[in-house]
Structures are given as structure tokens and as C-alpha cells.
Hints:
Chain A is built from 14 helices and 16 strands. Chain A is of the alpha/beta class. In chain A, helix 5 packs across helix 6 (138-150) and helix 11 packs across helix 13. In chain C, helix 3 crosses helix 5 (89-113), helix 5 (89-113) packs antiparallel against helix 7 (130-164) and helix 7 crosses helix 10 (219-231).
Amino acid sequence: MITFESVTKQFPGGTTAVDELHLQVPDGEVVVLVGPSGCGKTTILRMVNRMIEPSGGRVAVNGEDVMRTSPPRLRRGIGYVIQGIGLFPHRTIAQNVATVPKLEGWDDDRIKARVDELIETVGLPDGVRDRYPHQLSGGQQQRVGVARALAADPPVMLMDEPFAAVDPIVRTRLQDEFLRLQSEVRKTIVFVTHDIDEAIKMGDRIAILSQGGHLQQYATPKELLAEPANDFVADFLGAERGLKRLALIPVSQVEAAPGPVVAPGAGIDEARRVAETHSSDWVVVVDDEGRARGWARLDELDGRGPVDGVRLRDFELTVHADDSLRTALNALVISRHGVAVRLGDGDRYEGLLTRELLSEELR
Amino acid sequence: MDWAWVGENLGRIRGYALQHLFLTAVPVAAGFVLAFPMSLAAIRWRRLYAPLLGFTGMLFTIPSIALFVLLIPVTGLGPLTAIVPLTIYTLLILIRNTVEGLDGVDPDVREAAEAMGYTRGRRLLGVELPLALPVIVAGLRIATVTTVGLVTITALIGAGGLGRLIVDGFTLFFPTSVVVGVVLSVAFAVAADLVLLAGQKALTPWRAGRA
Amino acid sequence: MELVAQLLDWFTAPAQWTGSSGIPVRVLEHVLYTVAATGVAVVVGLPIGLAVGHTGRGGTVAVNTTNVGRAIPSFGIIVLFFFIFGIDPVPAVIMLVALALPPIVTNTYVGVRSVAPAVTDSAAGMGLTGWQVLREVEIPAAMPLIMAGIRTSAVQVVATATLAAYIGLGGLGRYIFDGLSQQVLNQVVGGAILVALLALATELALGRVQRLVVPRGLQARSRQAALDAKLT
């Protein structure tokens, strides 16, 4: 756990970067510091490993005041990843990753085993071991940076805009990989970004800061989006706050409507009756095993035969239980009929999502 | 050109060349030993840097023959009178390149080293110096080549080196000796430059394949 | 201490301040060599450097010439010139010109090349001709380096002109070499002091000129250039 107690930082010349900050970063969680430039987020991060020393208050890692530990000692127990990565250009990838274990005096076999393990963990090809950093792509270099920070298995990690320098596609991939990795290693992480979307995606909790290091709100992403504490927070979350919140809620959270369902062998009269009770002009065809076969429009059904006598239409838009409501809303907007079909594994029919159901959830 | 003379005097020429080597190596080495701590001080206390460059720059402006001669009353005629000014001349180049080389280390790399728990001394030796090496060696190359040229002048104050071939050639009205002195001096400068460059390449393998 | 007294004697002797071997004449000779050699080098070197820089062709040759120049011992060249031309001020000055050229050409070239392509591009885009780009943009921007090159050359010429006295030319070097051969220490040291002062005065005077002709926005760069020109 990292705790900030009335932490203040004034720089020579009188600017106050951080003002009376109280904050707790629980073990195994990612806490994202976010805010406009000049809000002191990087200063707060750097006070954890004494790259910057507080002018007042107390910063403690696992109860131990950071000012009581010598900087080198303290820092070797805290992983650090920055936007510029800062790989050592004169050392190979393996040597870079081995930096802190080497400083800690591990024996060579242990270092080698750890380096091999990490290169695999962060998804780098084995061939990069003996290359130099400039021979790698930006995304690969950033992975090396993460591997190097994890090398001595520090319980705490500090990350300062770690993915800001790579292009959007690589960034998304690195973010996803990082979340997967974090679900395994469960580090206590302080993560700085200026991008609210990244904060919402990466953070277990988010601290929103304003100019001069004032903490405006500290909450989980959902709480933040549902109930911004003040106008500053609401503004910072942006105009699409509702949509961002939808992105955090899984489809499974919303009860799906059963919809006009008929069996493949049903006749046209039954189809008409079912459609009418749902006031629609189409039906969904679901077989005995609960699999959705497709759908049909009433006016296309011919004569007396069963509904599967005609060519059933495929569903244009389907959603799954673990998709976000934002994805579902997108499907609803595109859909001509204002509905999206929710399917489970193996095309199992789980019901229909409608605009009404979604706005119910948003209320 | 009198080739027979060259053959007959090979031993003497070799002796002058060795003196030349000595008179180049000692000032460059001494200059580096002096410049290095001065550079570290200039990095630690930024305000020292400009005056340090100003002062060594002023010394650099004084013509070598004048500086050699001004030392005669202090150190007499001989190698020491040559070595002191030659050492002084290397300072400007070596200080400037050492400071700029260390300054040029990517701040992110410096920060990463600090954040991983490097102590100040270890960071300097393990990270900053290796990365500054190309610029520092570039300074050593300029200092060495310049010194090789200046050593020829020291023959005028009795310090030896290949300049003796030039002085003797002039006194005895014998051009071959002068030509040999000039050619060997140039060859020596080029060779020293290449050796330093090769040494730098060997010490910085990570730069292979980069401009 | 004794030497200080002897030096004072040397500097204050009335004979020292008159006649063809007096200090005023020797200083004048030395200044003339320097002005002539540097002046010719500027007239020849500046257009070369501007042309090379403006067109971008031949730059490597210019820079490499300077590098090679550093390896050539000027003292040896002076003596070789003596064997070829005898005691004659004209070839001596030509040699000084040759030594003064590389710093001027290279610095002018580097100065013109260092103008950001975006700047010359936008100048051309506003409709300036090649000549106008050179005159309005490249020369003013290159001024710190051009002046630094001239300054370096001039100081170098002061030093090398001293050596030219070894083969019988005039100038302040005469005191040093005559003194050395006659073993008159106070004259040798007195000459060296004068040479050192002249070199420093040249450096400072041209530094003044540099501050006057360099556009105000480029002054900081100008100081840096003065240092770089000495060392490259």
C-alpha cells in the first residue's frame, strides 16, 4: 500500500505543484492519476521513489516513510516505466532487463532464468535477447521497459505515460497486454496519464487532479462517471460521459427481453400471433437446443408452411454477455429495427436488447 | 630527395619519432587527467563551465611558440618546457567534449538509471561515461592531431621530436630532412587519429551499423 | 626577479621604440602580414564557402580539407617554402593565406547549411530568388559562424606569422628567433609577450566586430560558434 498524508510540494520559486494531498493506493490495484498539464500528477508519482522529495507531509510505501530509506535502496524495490522508456542504448536487451537484479547482486544463473522468463512474459520474441535497443520497434522497446521494471519483482510499480509515445494501434495492444499481465502479477501501481479514456480503461481507481495539485475526486471509474463530484470533474470526463460509462458496464448487467420467438416448425398463424403480442412484424426462430437460427419477416412467409420453409435472414448485429453496453448501443443505433440480438456461446439465444432497456439502465 | 640519406639515418629518425610519440602522448594523457575532474566539476557546478572555457580558450589563443618561450625562464630548455604548454592546449578541447558528451546523454536514460537505484558514481561509470565515449574520443582525436602538429615546433626550444629533422634541414640547408620530418609528422597524426577511432569503435559495439 | 628587471630594461630602452627593428615597426609588420593574409583569405574563402553552402555541393571536400590542414605542421611548411622561394614576403603571405582559408571556408559552409530547410523553403515560397535567399536569409543566419571562422583564422595567422620569422621574415617573431640564436633571454621573452598580447588583442577585437555584425537574435549562437570554430 502507498499512502500520501498531507503531502505538499513547493518548487523553488514558489510554485505549488501538490497541495495537501491525501491518497491511498491499495495493494494490487492500479491507481491512475489524471488531470491537465500542471496538475502535479508526475510530481506525485515521482515522490513515491524520491525522484522528487516532498516539502511537507509523508509518503509511505507499506507503512515505511520513503524519506527513511536511501534513494538507491528504495528505488530498487519500485519498478519505473516512463514515456521515453530510457533503455540503455549501450546494453543488450537481456542486459537492460537484468539491470536491477545485477545491482542487487543476484547470481548469473538466476538472472538468466529471470530474463528469459520476462522476455516471454511481455511477449517479445526470444531473438531480441542479444540485440541493442535501437534495433527494436517502439512497441518492442516499451515491452522491454516493462520487463526491466518487473525484473526484480518489485511489489510497487510507477508508470508515467508509459504508452504515450507509440501509435494508437500499438498503444491499444500494449494496454490490453498490460491489463492481462496485471491480472496475473497484481502489482500495486501508480499510473499517470493525461488521457481520460486510458485512465478509465486502465484504472481500478482514478484520482482526478486540477492545477496546483488539488485532488478533485478519487473513485472507481464507474463511480466517477456516474457521479462526478463537481463541474471540474464532469468537464474533464468530457461530453461523452454517458457513453464512457456504458463502456464499463457489461451487457450481462441488463435483463434482455425474450422477444417474438418461435420454433422452426411453427406455422404462419403462430408466427403472426407471437409477433402481434410483441407488436413487431418479424419473428426470431430458435430451435430445440436453444440456438438462434435466424429471423423472418411476416410478409415474406408464404402460405401454410412452417417458418423455416423460407430462407431465414441472418442477424446483422449480435452482442455477447461480456461485450460492453457501449458496443450494444452502437449495434442498436445501426440496426434498422432498433434491436440487437444477444447470443451466448454456440449461438445460444439469450434474448433481445432494445433502446428502451438500455436507457432504463442509464437512468 | 636524397634517399640514401634516409637509409643512413634511419636510427636517428626512429629516435626522433619516438621522442615525438612521447611528446604527444604525455601532454594528451596529462591533459585528459586534468580535464576530466574539471569537466565533472563543471557539470556539478554549472557556473564554473563558462569561466573554465573562457580561461582555457584564452590560453589556447596564445601562439604556441610564445608560450614555449615564456616557459624557458621557468623550466629551461628541454622536454618539460614543451610538455606544459602542450598539455594546456589540450584542456579546452578535452573539457568541452567531455562536458558536452556527458550532457548529451539522453535525459530519459539518466532518469531510468536513477529510478532503478543507481548510485551517482555507478551511474557515471556504468551509464553516462560509456554513452559519452564517442564525443570524448572525438575530443581526444582533435587534441592528439593538434598536439602532433605543435610538437614539431618544440624542436626550436630544444625538446626534440620530428621537428628536429626540420630544424636540422634548415640549418644545414638540406631539404630531404625537412620533407621527411613533415611527411612523418603528418603520417603520425593520421595514424594516431585512426588508432583512436578504432579504439572508440571497439569500445562502443552498440553503435555498429549506425551513422 | 633578475629577468623581470632585464625585461623592463628591454621594453624601456629608447632604441627599442625607434628604427627598423623597433617594437612599433615589428608590430606593424606583424599586423600587416596578418591583415593581408586574413583579408585575402576572406575575399577568396567567403565566396567559396557561400557557394558550397548554398548549392550543397562539395561540402565534404571543404570539411575534409580543414581536417587534413590540422594534421599538417605549419612550421615544416614554412621551412619548405624557404627552400622553394627563398626569403620573400609574398610566398610567405601566400602560405599564410593557405592556412587561413580552411576555417573560413568550412565555417561559412557549415553556417549556410545550418539554416533550417524550412526557413530557406519558406523564403523561396514567398518568391525570393536564389540570390535573395542567400542575401536576406542565409548570410545573416550564417554570420556567427562566418565571423567565428575569420576570428580563428586571424589568430592562427598571428601565430604562424611568428614562425615565418624563423626563415628571415620580419614581424615579432624576429625578437624570438634572433634572441634564441644570440642567447639573449630578455629579448626572447619580451618578443613572446608581445606575440601573446597581439594574439589576444586580435581575438578580442574580432570578438567586438563579431558582436557588431551578428544580428541580435543570434548572439547566443555566436558565442557558441566562436568556441566551436577553434576546435574543429
